[in-house]
Specification:
The chain is mainly α. It has a single domain (14-447), classed as Orthogonal Bundle (Hydantoin permease), CATH 1.10.4160. 77% of the residues lie in helices and 0% in strands. It has 18 helices and no strands. It has helices at residues 14-25, 28-40, 44-72, 76-87, 94-126, 135-146, 149-168, 171-197, 203-211, 220-233, 240-246, 254-282, 292-304, 308-342, 346-367, 381-408, 411-418, 422-447. Helix 1 packs antiparallel against helix 11, helix 3 (44-72) packs across helix 18 and helix 8 (171-197) runs parallel beside helix 12 (254-282). The chain is globular.
Length: 451
Amino acid sequence: MIDKQSLHGEWSSRFAFILAATGSAVGLGNIWKFPYIAGENGGSAFVMVYVACVVLMGIPIMMAETMLGRRAKQNPVDTMRTLTQEAGADSRWQYLAWMGMVAGFLILSYYSVIAGWASAYTLKAVMGDFFGSNAEKTEVMFNDFISSPLRLIFWHSFFMLATMVIVSKGVRNGLEKAVQMLMPVLFIMMFLLVGYAMTTSGYQQGLHFLFSPDFSKITSKVVLTAMGQAFFSLGLGMGTMMIYGAYVPKNVSIGKSAIIVAGADTIVALLAGIAIFPIVFANGLHPDSGPGLVFETLPIAFGNMTGGWLFGVLFFLMLVVAALTSSIALIEPAVAWLIESKDMTRDQACVRAGLVAWALGFVTVFSFNRWADIHVFGHTLFELIDGLTANIMLPAGGLAIAIFAGWVMKQQHTVQELALPDSQYVIWKALISYVAPAGVFLIFLHVVGVL
């Protein structure tokens, strides 16, 4: 059995790991993406399938990825190198880690830009820019904002700097302290918004839209979309859970922790829907407004409702907090690799990794203005990066993790790390070996256009 200690230290407790892993999973995908995808895919029909996919596919893969990280106690690349040697497997399995790290790094490059939008809109909310808004005003406001490269670069730089500063402090003084402060704030703001939503005339309609079963709306497209969102929402296949797993003490139960993290991530997504849809319905807006639901639609509601100034500030601040807890997880695998493989200090690694991600972010910045007319395969450069990572690299990474944990690792090693009762281990083994790979493979076929 491998008996190593991470060079970067460990989480102080299971609670600290759960907060960090939840922060890694909870991000813009929960609060920005989940509501509009649910709105476009039948509401309750989508929610039912989404929850089932989290249980049957997301949790087993999360357990597997965390297990890999804890067993080797290294950065993702060296983790896969060590574990393939232990299993007597083909050394090319380490390419799985490289793919995941590159995907996470590319995601961070545009994630920081979008998080910069949320930061800017927090200030707009504070300044009262949403007051008396209508559809025309919010559309002009958004288009004017993204048309300015200098504005986008400023907010992108602001957010990336915040990420680098937190990660430079290390596991306990940086990552752990940040999530211990930010995650409770996130949940408090979320519950305040839900509390307001309960007072609106659209509250019952919002609950009905999200939770009243309508099996007639469950189509193959809804199933595949829900599976994809469940997988991407949990942030699997990009090395973050692997590196966070490397900091997990041996006495922490991976199974229980994964269930709590996945549960908290799902609760945040559902709370976002409960907070947003009543506001949408109460103001006569459309739930299927797409990606513009947050930046173009909700400011109309915040600008015309009682207490809209306060709740507008809370909502966009919540977006920033959620994005920050995810961004520190996205950069950590690359930072850990630079420290362990290139003999850098943590400060040096954070500066190098942060600057590269910051520079790559310019591609996203300019794709909304100066390079907006540049299309590759019919997509803007931002859409190309987003599609490559979310639709190809992450599903492939998740599929590889499931296969490696279920079929390549020796069973005695997975038994040692998971320490589950026999009946629970059998369930996990079946899910990771058969159900999860089949599910991820279907997602992959869907996004490449086969299904």
